[in-house]
Amino acid sequence: MGVGVVSNLSLGKMHVSAFEPALANVQNDNILVVIQQFGGNDGMNTITPYEWESYYTLYRPKLHIPKNVVEPISKDLGMAMHPNLKRGPKNGMLGLFNAGKLAVMHGLGYHNPNYSHFRSTDIWLSGVVPNNDTEPLKSGWLGRYFDRVRPSERTDSPFCLQIGQNPSLMFLGETGEKSIVLEDAEQLYSQAKSVESNKINIGGSAYFMSEFDYVNKVGQEVNEYSKVIKKAFDSGKNIEKYADQPLANQLKLVARLINGGLKSKVYFVEHHGYDTHSNQGVLDGIHSRLLAELSEAISAFQSDIEQLGHASKVVGITTSEFGRRPYENGSLGTDHGTANVGFAFGEAVKGEIFGFHFAFLQFRDFQNLWFKTDFRSIYYEIMVSWFDQTPEYAQNVLGSKFAYIEEKGFLKSTKKDITLPPPPDVPKVNMDLNNPDNPLSPLNITEQDKFTLYPNPVQGNSAFLNMRLYFQGSVRIVQTYVNGQEMGVIHEKTYQAGLHNVYLELKGGPGLYLLRIKVGKRNHFVRCLKI
Amino acid sequence: MGIISRRNFFDSLLESTRSRLDINANLDEYTQPLSRLQVQHLLRRTTFSLSNSIIDKYVGKTAGFVVDELFTNADAAINPSPPFFHNDHIKNPGNLSGKQREEADAKRNLLFGEYNYVLGEWWVTLMKKDTVSVLEKMVLFWHDHFATQFQSCDNIPAISMYRQNDLFRKNYAGNLRNLLEQLTIDGAMLKYLNGNLNISASPNENYARELMELFSLGVGNYTEQDVREASKILTGWKVNYFLDEGTPYKPYLNIAEFDKSTKIFMGEVFAVNYEVNEQNVFKNSIQKLIDVILSKKGEVAAKFISNKLYQYFVYANPQKADASVIDQMAKLVTDNNFELKPVLKRLLKSQHFFDDLNVGAQVKSPAETVIGMLKHLKYPDRWARNIMATLGLELFNPPNVAGWKGYRSWISTKTLPTTVYYIKEIINNNTNTELANWALSIEGSGDVQILTERYIELFLARPVSEDRFKKFKNVFLSGAPDYEWYEIIKNKDQTGQRVRSFLFEIIKAPEYFLF
Question: Which residue of chain B has the CA closest to A191?
Answer without folding.
Answer: B417
